[in-house]
Amino acid sequence: MRRQFIAGNWKMNTNRAAAVALAEGIAKAAASVANVDLAVCPPCCYLEAVGKALAGSKVGLGAQNMYHEKEGAFTGELSAGMLVDMGCKYVILGHSERRHILGETDAAINKKVHAALAAGLTPIVCVGELLAEREAGKTLGVIQCQFAGSLAGLASERMAKVVIAYEPVWAIGTGKVATPQQAEEVHLALRKILAEHYDASVAEGVVIQYGGSVKPENAAELLGQPNIDGALVGGASLKVDQFLGIIAGAKENR
Ligand code: PGA
């Protein structure tokens, strides 16, 4: 049985005080949330401070990126082991901003996915098409290709621990949310791809989040779709009441 999983991606926002206040607000409110997994992913420089603010709460800590090597001369990078050491349970990998602004490839993301899983982190692996790709009818082909590249070479037990986030690039930070039907179509396709590459039990077990302009007003309808298991939330995760409004939209039982 899949549980809903709502994660906040704070991106390059907040400062130390704002990050701690946001984490404290979410941690407090999360005490009354049942049957929904929760996480926040602050900028890496605030992981430790946010981790302290979340201590003893139901909210997991996640990072927004990492490098695949364990250690060494990789200036500016962080390893999976370092994230674990900071208290992280999750790491977002292959976010569209990293793919399209910072040039990350499926091959690079794939190395990170393997390294994250080896270190015991749960990777939240993002896939999603550009507007031009959607308009050209290429959405499912793009998703298939990103799946095959970013998630190559994982044994079933490893794949079962991955969270996939479908984030259409045209819906991220634009206010243009995918309709529940558009999102569900891709989520169902991802589940079929999982069944083809693995088996029915892996396909049924993997949590697939939707991301892209999720707000309290549209959360319940999106999260009510049979193959949408949660949300990766950007802008609306920076306000306690909005993030809580999205959590309230998560179906508590399947
Ligand atoms: P958004 O971002 O909710 O601001 O559209 C989602 C994401 O990029 O993960």
Structural key phrases:
2 domains; 8-stranded parallel barrel; 254 residues; binds 2-phosphoglycolic acid; 12 helices
Describe this entry's structure for a reader.
The protein has helices at 16-30, 47-54, 80-85, 96-100, 106-118, 131-135, 139-150, 156-159, 180-197, 200-205, 216-223, 240-249; strands spanning 4-9, 36-41, 59-63, 90-93, 122-127, 163-166, 207-211, 230-233. It is globular, with a radius of gyration of 17 Å. It folds into two domains: 1-62; 65-177 and 189-205, Aldolase class I (TIM Barrel), CATH 3.20.20. Strands 1-2-3-4-5-6-7-8 form an eight-stranded parallel beta barrel, surrounded by seven helices. Strand 3 (59-63), helix 3 (80-85) and strand 4 (90-93) form a beta-alpha-beta unit. The chain is built from twelve helices and eight strands. It is an alpha/beta fold and 254 residues long. Helix 1 (16-30) packs parallel to helix 2, helix 5 (106-118) packs across helix 7 and helix 7 (139-150) crosses helix 9 (180-197). It is 43% helix and 16% strand. 2-phosphoglycolic acid binds next to strand 8.
